[in-house]
Design goal:
heterodimer; A: about 280 residues; alpha/beta; D-Maltodextrin-Binding Protein, domain 2; 10-stranded mixed β-sheet; globular; B: about 290 residues; mainly alpha; MetI-like fold; two-stranded antiparallel sheet; about 80% helix; about 0% strand; transmembrane (chain B); Phosphate transport system permease protein (chain B); MetI-like_sf (chain B); cell membrane (chain B); Phosphate_Transport_Permease (chain B)
Chain lengths: ~280, ~290
């Protein structure tokens, strides 16, 4: 019986100590909570690390769940800053967007695919199944396997906007959620086509994942072309707030839009907007 | 325990027993209360959808395009049922064979190792199984028929997930069959296999059926692995190679991004899922009871 009690104490006491120290830590620290886009989250994570190094009294927590969730959280006061990887909608005019980076949507195919460039018309024809075989585009990959994003995702919104399509027009073979799931699906299927954030696709393609970024309307899907604005399908990466913000929040917003984060943006293949 | 028995026990109880009884009552009330709170929250969130769109459009709408005002869910309900049923069809024979092996054929050490393996399989997080399915199983299926993400892939990954449940429950049920049955059968000149097939397995059948129902309900609710390998196209599949979307996968894919009626519609689908699981449990109990009478 005594042995049992000692064991119980051995588990419970450190837990208690942890809890107490966590509560104490919270008292002399300012916390910021960022929620929203899974595209922005890894970038924000790095920016937050850098910011925490320079401001020891600030802790920044980052949670994903999508741009729209970020907006909902911001309106309900559940976060300090929303991460939104698209332009704000007209229905969101109560919010303020701080654009800290630009990203593009890249069409991706398997690395063995011979196709180098597709026009916006081609993409429309493929996604509405008017053209169903890679032979239409000089490749021997057989029937085109279309990968689409699930409804509500920021990348889907950008895709629909850019190509002027509505959800029922698109006849996909596969529907995915996160960017990485899309990349894994294309890397594992010689005949697939999908679209994900250029940042994620570029990074993975450089690190040996079996995908290829296809040019759009004769413009290569590269970081430079996103930066100089010549790439057609571009989106904003925004930090979004509502109304008056706290000093801590404002300081972080300023930091995220300063030169100090450019190195981080480079590693993620997104670019700061020119001001 | 029947009531007279309970009353007899109550007659002899002291203060400590009464405290314990009160504590147990409180614990039981608390856990059943939480179930009630969860179910009612989900149902309440579904009300705006029922008010604005209504139940009939769950069936009559053309396809599922929630941001475009179309809310048909029958294809996804069928998807859920077919994927889970497929998993059970695969897991039942494999599970029963595993259990028979464990109970009658395995040596001391090989049996132990096999049982540990099953337990490890049960412990693999579903997202890991899903990831493995997407990178290994799906490309294999795609070689037979594109696009690979399919009903078959989903059912197969789910099979791995529910196999330990089916096997370990079946094993427990077979072990619970009185030893005299088996020895009696052997004594009457049955071979080992005949005794297992004609005496032990029929005696264990109600338990195995219950295990199957539990596994089916688990398969119906499983989400992460299914999202990764099912392809998630909203359609009634006409072959095992076609992609499907299950109700739970649909909720996982869209709930973080859904607003207004779309969000409410997902809660409606969650309510349907809960009701489906309840019906299955009810059917399961009924089947088990009918079977026990045989």
């Amino acid at each position: 019986m005594l042995g049992y009690r000692i064991k119980l104490a051995a588990v419970a006491l450190p837990l208690l100590a942890l809890t107490v120290s966590a509560i104490q830590a919270k008292a002399d620290e300012t916390r910021l909570l960022l929620t929203g886009s899974s595209t922005i989250a890894p970038i924000a994570e790095e920016i937050a690390h850098l910011y925490e190094e320079k401001n020891q009294d600030v802790r920044i927590d980052i949670q994903t769940g999508g741009s729209t969730k970020g907006v909902i959280d911001q309106r309900r006061g559940l976060n300090d800053i929303a991460m939104v990887s698209r332009r704000l909608k007209p229905s969101e005019s109560d919010l303020t967007a701080h654009t800290f980076a630009l990203d593009g949507l890249a069409m991706i195919v398997h690395e063995d695919n011979a196709v180098e460039d597709l026009s916006s018309d081609d993409i429309r024809a493929i996604y509405t199944r008017k053209k169903t075989d890679w032979s239409d585009f000089g490749d021997d990959g057989g029937e085109i396997i279309i990968i689409n994003k699930s409804e509500g995702r920021a990348t889907l919104d950008l895709f629909l906007d850019h190509f002027g399509l509505i959800p029922p027009d698109i006849k996909p073979h596969m529907v995915i959620g996160e960017n990485e799931q899309g990349i894994k699906a294309v890397a594992g299927n010689r005949s697939a086509i999908g679209y994900v954030a250029i940042s994620t696709a570029f990074y993975d393609a450089e690190h040996g994942v079996a995908i290829k970024l296809v040019g759009l309307d004769g413009v290569l899907a590269t970081v430079e072309n996103v930066a100089n604005g010549s790439y057609p399908a571009i989106r904003q990466l925004n930090l979004v707030t509502a109304g008056e913000v706290s000093k801590t929040t404002q300081a972080f917003l300023d930091f995220a839009q300063s030169e100090a984060v450019h190195e981080i943006l480079d590693t993620f293949h997104v670019v700061a907007p020119s001001r | 325990m029947s009531w007279p028995q309970a009353a007899e026990r109550r007659a002899g109880q002291g203060a400590a027993d009464r405290w314990l009884a009160a504590l147990l009552w409180a614990a039981a009330l608390f856990s059943s209360g939480i179930v009630f709170v969860i179910v009612s929250t989900v149902a309440v969130e579904a009300i705006p959808f029922l008010r604005e769109i209504g139940l009939t459009r769950l069936v009559s709408d053309e396809g599922w395009y929630p941001t475009y005002g179309r809310f048909q869910m029958t294809a996804m309900l069928i998807g859920s049922l077919v994927v889970a049923a497929g998993a059970c069809v695969l897991a039942l024979p494999a599970g029963v064979v595993s259990a028979v092996y464990l109970a009658f054929y395995a040596g001391r050490w090989s049996g132990r190792i096999y049982q540990r393996l099953l337990e490890i399989l049960a412990g693999i997080p579903s997202v890991v199984l899903g990831f493995w399915g997407l990178t290994t199983v799906v490309p294999l299926i795609a070689k037979v028929e594109q696009p690979g993400t399919s009903l078959l892939a989903a059912s197969f990954v789910l099979t791995l997930m529910i196999l330990p449940t089916v096997a370990l429950i079946a094993f427990a049920r077979i072990a619970a069959v009185p030893d005299a049955y088996y020895r009696g059968a052997i004594g009457l000149g049955f071979s080992r296999w005949q005794a297992i097939r004609q005496v032990v397995l029929p005696a264990a059948r109600p338990g195995i059926a219950t295990g199957c129902i539990l596994a089916f309900a688990r398969a119906l609710g499983e989400t992460m692995a299914v999202v990764m390998v099912a392809g998630n196209i909203v359609q009634v599949p006409t072959s095992v190679f076609q992609p499907v979307r299950t109700l739970s996968a649909n909720i996982a894919l869209e709930v973080g991004y859904a607003m207004d009626v779309h969000r409410s519609s997902l809660f409606a689908s969650a309510t349907i899922l809960v009701l489906a699981v309840l019906v299955i449990f009810a059917v399961g109990r009924w089947v088990a009871r009918e079977d026990a009478h045989v």
